Amino acid sequence: MTTIAVLGNGRVGGNLAAALTRAGHEVSVADRTPGAAARAARATRIVINATPGAGSPERLAALRAELRGKILVDVSNATVDGPDGLPADLLHPGSSLAEKLQEALPETHVVKTLNTMLFPVMTAPDVLTDKPTAFLSGEDPQAKGTVRELLVDLGRHEEWITDLGGIRTARATEAAILFVPHVIRSSGFAPFAISVAR
Fold first, then answer.
1. What fold, for 3-187?
2. Which of 8, 80, 85, 156 is least enclosed by beta carbons within 10 angstroms?
């Protein structure tokens, strides 16, 4: 059993917290109550960032001391939204949210994953006919290994997980968010993911 803190109690954070609890982990969820995020991060080894990506760097930079030496699993995307509320552009072109987090938290092991799929697929990959690829980006191999184990706990087989390399590779997976509005407008809000077919 691993102790995990989830920052963000919206659809993504709540979904992940429930699934990880079912998998046998001890999970705490930090809402927007003052001090809740710091208390949760301080008491755990793994922290999941499920907060809105646009404000994540500033929000998490305030937790630098609490996140020192911890694994930060970043599942968010930072976008500029269009008039319909769907992503219209990247907030950090030429970089990525994951890189911004790693820069703000140099003593934290940031691992990017699960951001290339709609939130129901994060915890139920079997809802799709074709198995979704979960990508890993991060500088620390041990941290990525720990996150890989969590992905397996969330219903993935090892062969569905692809390690892309360092944190800079998160630029590629974060850019995949630009598919989302077009797919939704074309096919409706049904679960889907970006996958590598082999």
1. Rossmann fold (3.40.50)
2. 85
